Amino acid sequence: MIPAPPDAVWAVLTDFDSYSEWNPLNVEARGKAAAGARIPMTFVNPARAGAKVKLPVRLTHVEPGRRLEWIGEIPVLFRGRHFFDLSPDGGGTRMVHGEDMSGMISWGISARQIEQDFIPVYQAMNAALAARAARRT
Among 66, 68, 79, 112, fewest CB within 10 Å belongs to which? Predict the structure, then answer.
């Protein structure tokens, strides 16, 4: 739950140029939110402490105030589909944030590693997003 309306959350999520100011997971991005757009992005690699990955992502679903989705891919090695689903809930927003991973690199990531290394980084991103969106309202 985010204590801000979906439009405020959407405005933060799609302001890629400001990710470096607040986002602890996707630490840098540039571009405009439009279906099919390629967004250069740098993100932390939770599987390797301190490592960052630069990978352009392609926006595959852009529905203002409702859903943002992108895919980052290194053929055969990795494919990640990252998504945010937003829905109004009272005066705030219910957000579902997730990622589906496939490819050879993902095969070596255990459920324990996801619990220990990935989930805390995603939760930190969610908290930072909530705080920034709340400040916009």
Answer: 112
Name every residue whose Cβ is closer than 8 Å to that of residue 64 and which is 6 or more positions away in sequence: 7, 10, 14
4: its two tokens: 């801000």
Which class does domain 6-136 fall in? alpha beta
- What is the rounded CA–CA span in Å between residue 97 and residue 137? 21
Closest CA to 16 of 2, 4, 32: 32
- pLDDT tens for residues 74-121? 888 889 999 999 999 999 999 999 998 888 877 778 888 788 888 999
Give me 56's structure tokens. 């352009």
The phi and psi torsions of 133 (rounded to 5 degrees) equal: -65, -40
Contact 72, 57 (CB under 8 A): yes
pTM confidence score: 0.91
User: For residues 93 and 7, what is the distance between their CA atoms, to the nearest angstrom?
Assistant: 9
Alpha helix locations (H) across the chain?
6-13, 19-22, 104-107, 111-113, 119-136
Is 13 in contact with 2 (CB distance < 8 Å)?
Answer: no
